[in-house]
Amino acid sequence: MAAWKITNKFMCNLDLVCGRYAISKLPEELIEEFEISAGHTGKVLPADWNISPTKEIYIIRNNQEEKRELVNLSWGLIAPWSKTSDEAIKSQSSAINARTETVDSKPTFKNAFKYHRCLIPATGYYEWATELGKYPSKQPFYIHNKNNKTLAFAGIYSTWRDENGAAKQSAALITRPAVDILEKIHHRMPTFLPQDRWDHWLDNQENDVEE
């Protein structure tokens, strides 16, 4: 487990585990830190300290040549059975997170988990203190590495096509039961992947990716 720093923050409330996160790094910084050999595809996103569902985000994945690439897509996995753009957008808000316990079996997530895994880089994330009775429910905490090194969330992504055949890519991060100090704030947490697990997780030919 990394050395965590937890700071009180005041932002809008959201009744979801890891319903807001932050990323302040430029593509060139992420390319260096995550050893991305295939570069970045997409526009440069501004630093965002309040990323919410359906916003455009960065993910890191393997391309068809099994080289890491940095790409942009939207946060919240579009339900594969969505028939219209309105249905797709609506489905995203309830699918920003997938649980480790069910990601391989739930219809929304199981195909992406098997074939399309990614890393979601984050400077930190916000959690609302559901487990700490001494704090008001609307008070979030900002959680990040003490050394400010970028976090790597385990994620999944998929491609959905709208009524006109246009492709839209989306992603969800994977959560697990909270441990250590984080358990005192909320009963769940994002699944963090250390650097020595990145290759294994991103290898879409590898199905044995249990924790």
Short description:
By secondary structure, the protein is mainly beta.
Any key phrases for this structure?
single chain, 211 residues, mainly beta, hypothetical protein yedk fold, eight-stranded mixed β-sheet, 4 helices
What topology emerges from the helices and strands here?
Blueprint: E1 4-8, E2 20-23, H1 27-33, E3 40-41, E4 48-51, E5 56-62, E6 68-75, H2 85-92, E7 97-99, H3 110-115, E8 117-122, E9 124-128, E10 140-145, E11 151-161, E12 167-177, E13 188-190, H4 198-202
Parallel strand pairs: 3-6, 6-12, 7-12
Antiparallel strand pairs: 1-10, 2-4, 2-9, 5-6, 8-11, 9-10, 11-12, 12-13
Structure, explained:
With 211 residues, this protein is mainly beta. It has a single domain, classed as Alpha-Beta Complex (hypothetical protein yedk fold). It is built from four helices and 13 strands. The chain has helices spanning 27-33, 85-92, 110-115, 198-202, and strands spanning 4-8, 20-23, 40-41, 48-51, 56-62, 68-75, 97-99, 117-122, 124-128, 140-145, 151-161, 167-177, 188-190. The strands form two sheets. Strands 3, 5, 6, 7, 8, 11, 12 and 13 form an eight-stranded mixed beta sheet that branches. The chain has a five-stranded antiparallel beta sheet with strand order 1-10-9-2-4, with no helix packed on it. The protein starts with a strand and ends in a 9-residue tail after the last helix. The relative contact order is 0.22.
